């Protein structure tokens, strides 16, 4: 290029750049002077990467932020204010989009809005650099989180003191201790170790006989480590074989599965409005869990059955495995079905995966790599199932006489309920028959304008009738209904085009009557009608129905008597067009009655007059009642869900295919194809390649044995959790769990036979305690065992064992475990009321059944001490302990004291303890006798049909505990039970 032309070209470019630069400088100056301060003052609190806030997924502190936009798309379209969401928001054009919200100052001044509009019209010049910083967990860092990586079985680490190790577990613990310059503690005393094993695996203490037998074996194996290992292993095998193992570890799982015997929600509308507040069959799920653990059901199969037992290829109609589906149905119920689905998603993902997927209901998960679309992928799965009315029956445990008595009582209640159904329909029929023209006319105007409209009010005033919702709301509003469709179609016309009604009605009526399924009586009566108003149509209906009223009554009577219909089919259809009138043969069961009653729009008073609560209580409490599975089934047409924008079901977004979570999937995800997709979901969760399932399970097992999980948050292994104290050990246990056939019992043995588990809980016995208390005060490295407080069930069950009246039977209906008269069944069989949980278990840190709670807190509050001082159960234990043969037959007070220590603490008392206890007895003998206490005040029965009655706890049969004063020996028993040693495990 000639030099002169080059200079000319450069001059042109320079001139253009100078012009553009001038425009840019003006725009940036406008932004800096007017827009940046405005955004900082009014927007950054909710939409700033620096402040970690991105409401609606939107950040406004960078240019890239508003360009990328949030859940609703780009916030600004440069040069086009009218198309920019930001401008619509500050103008308050959309109430749901209005920004800033009223609680943060409300609508901006008009001058500020004008500046924003001008800025956008200028092309939204913005000098702020920086990429959009994701304020969700959808980041590479989150995806690289340790819990989402494949489980790889590590090699056993090298340690110096291999002689200390008893199982592979110890190598991992010792390696960490040696690296920190620490040593493990000495082994616990054999008495303490046995007590620890019994409580861990049974939730009960050993008997004096069991403690003595173990002590003898341990003493015989003195200085022989292998012989002691063998003695310990025999005890562990014995404990794992016992059905008490399933009761103990079943309770742990029930905490995770948020088990309860009630809905936790008194107002139940919709499909299940007639079902009782109490679940009649939740206990069958509890029994399934206990049985599954006792038989060491492989954990992967345990998962699959709880999500999709009904879809297994070898399942039978009354298969006991169907009870596993209670996992999906024993949760809290809500009026909004989307809340029920959210509860199921939350429980499923926390229980099996240790993930809080429900946090993605309204937006991408803030911490874990779970987009909102993944939440709605699971939403589609659970939206495609429904609870079954007809619950699969399970074998009955009642005797022949009990079963027969149950059948008689159930038959009587169902017969009375059925008769009451026909009585209600007859009453409503009588109201309609006496005021037919007025009610039909009222329905027309209700269909057109609603029951509170002036037109509806005018009809009621003209005919002098009162609003009867059970009649007025019962006639369908469907424009395709064979009987009422024509009237409803013309009501719609009267609403939409009232001034053109007379002109358009004939054609509209002709079209409605041309439908192929219109009732012939309706077609004949209205064929020549030329209505001038909606009143003309309603009057015509009333006139042609009136002659058929006796025949319609005959249909009700014949069906009530289970006899064939005598009128022609058109009249039968007319008779059943308002209220369903199935024949008695189709109302044989309670579930059939419920299904029919759902079609009746009845008031609360009428609804409560039915006997469903009585039937439910009979099923729940009668000893001859068979169990049934709280099963689910797929809906007829399973479907994918749409993403709800910001969790609002009224703002549907894109469809989310039913599929597994992206962060746990490898390769291209495949949508679920079989029905709802539950079975496919379950198999993904239970897969050995899933990195979270085994880790979550093993972390909980470790927690229940050692007092603290390798990860302290057992229901959340996501990015907000701490890193495992021993990550290699967690992966070793997880890999061994999966490759060992998913056997929990094998892992129990591996852990409890370890030297780690056997350590003493007293940190002061450790030679490196001074250094350890500085470097590892929380004992995360496990340089000593953790002293643990017994949970509520272990405390109560131990008290029952001390009375000698503990009921060893396994399974069955729930009982009241807190109120007199007392039940002597184990605490796992206690009735759990989700909404009105008894004070006693709450005071002892019982798990909240509102949500999954794999880890209970452990607190010490005054109410616990008051329980041991005043509760009638403790008083009864004190009395019965004093009468046990080994105490009553003891020759001296010292022998009695020794026997008491062996029974209560499973050890011999020290000489100081004997002396102190003898002094206690001597002083108690000199005390003046206390005054007899009053008899227990009987509880007042709640009024029938009230919420208090529906939610009242179950009552046991029996007599209250006598209130006589305690003897000195009985006072001693109570004092020992009140001690810390009774409620703690070394």
Any overview of this molecule?
Helix 41 (911-926) packs across helix 43 (968-977). The model is unreliable at 1-20 (pLDDT under 50). The protein is 49% helix and 2% strand. By secondary structure, it is an all-alpha fold. The protein starts with a helix and ends with a strand. The protein has a two-stranded antiparallel sheet with strand order 1-2. The radius of gyration is 36 Å and the shape is globular. It contains 44 helices and eight strands.
Brief overview:
The chain has 986 residues and is mainly α. The protein is built from 44 helices and 8 strands. The strands form 4 sheets. The chain has a two-stranded antiparallel sheet. The protein has a two-stranded antiparallel sheet with strand order 3-4. The chain has a two-stranded antiparallel sheet with strand order 5-6.
Helix-strand layout with pairing:
Elements: H1 3-42, E1 47-48, E2 53-54, H2 63-68, H3 85-91, H4 110-121, H5 140-143, H6 168-179, H7 190-201, H8 208-220, H9 225-241, H10 243-256, H11 282-294, H12 299-308, H13 326-329, H14 337-353, H15 372-383, E3 385-387, H16 400-434, H17 436-449, H18 454-463, H19 469-472, H20 485-496, H21 501-513, H22 520-526, H23 534-545, H24 549-560, H25 569-575, H26 590-597, H27 604-609, H28 612-621, E4 632-634, E5 641-644, E6 652-656, H29 678-685, H30 693-706, H31 727-739, H32 744-752, H33 755-758, H34 769-775, E7 788-789, H35 792-803, H36 839-843, H37 862-870, H38 872-882, H39 885-888, H40 893-904, H41 911-926, H42 947-950, H43 968-977, H44 980-983, E8 984-985
Antiparallel strand pairs: 1-2, 3-4, 5-6, 7-8
Helix pairs in contact: 1-4, 7-8, 7-9, 10-11, 12-29, 14-15, 16-24, 16-28, 17-18, 17-20, 17-23, 20-21, 20-23, 22-23, 24-25, 30-31, 30-32, 35-38, 38-43, 41-43
